[in-house]
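The aim of this short unit is practical: by the end, you should be able to scan a pair of folded records and say something sensible about each. We start with the first protein, listed as its amino acid sequence and then its structure tokens.
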Amino acid sequence: MVYAVVRAGGRQEKVEVGSIITVNRVAGDAKGKLELPAVLLVDGDQVTTDAAKLAKVKVTAEVLDDLRGPKIVIQRYKNKTGYKSRQGHRQDLTRLKVTGIK
């Protein structure tokens, strides 16, 4: 079983070939291909964490679609002063499918 831990969209994700992950918005090339930097690689019983060896590892992914996350509501309230504030936010996300770990 081969899997890798990659740095994608500000977080680290455990991926295998064929897995679909949702990360913060990243841009691929014109064909929708993307290469993710590996932090850890597990190939059977071998675990690779050496930075020099991981520089040679290529984790490729393709962009499936861009989407928006769920709406979160930010509310601030101060007692006895009449101050209240309300704000909403939706994060920009990208759905990726991992196509290869070499």
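Turning to the second protein, read its sequence before its tokens, just as you did above.
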Amino acid sequence: MIVAPSLLSADFATLKQQVAAVEKAGADYLHLDIMDGHFVPNITFGAQLVRDLRPHSKLIFDVHLMVEHPDEYFADFCRAGADIITVHVEACNHLHRTVQNIKQLGIKAGVALNPATPLSGIHYVLDEVDMVLLMTVNPGFGGQKFIDAVMPKVERLKQLTANLERNVDIQVDGGINENTAPGAVAAGANILVAGSFVFGAEEVSKPIEILRQL
């Protein structure tokens, strides 16, 4: 099980220390939510923050672009140290080309779907992507309630990826905690993004250990 703490829920006054804490606790990825205030109703941070954190961590930097016109930002985030860049199906006019543009940079490509977006939008890129992110909340803010209705979509995606000749990771993001994570894992997810559950704990090692053992 891959655990990806979401930096969105961290204390931004002590980011370097918090990233070090989750790395020491056994996290695998650092999930970085990039929001532009247009695709979602919030603004977070940009490539400069990723660049500043990169020398201080060996975690996989998992950059989740919740932005309009995502292709404009790939080069900046790749240079900043991204290992994976994920784009939203809903934000891409030419999804296949967008995925190819990411992979040409020598990093992994992921595609994300909002809770109400059907899997049909990614059928023709499954052979190209490294990861599919299924949002289990509506994107834009941390601390939201998990949407159980997404679980059948996770199960269906697991069936689709099982027929491929290559591994495609299934990531879930939103409302992940000790109560919701087991169902997501049972449905087929192998990467768990957790924000408030991890960074809101007195000791980040405890929630990370819970998730890693699923």
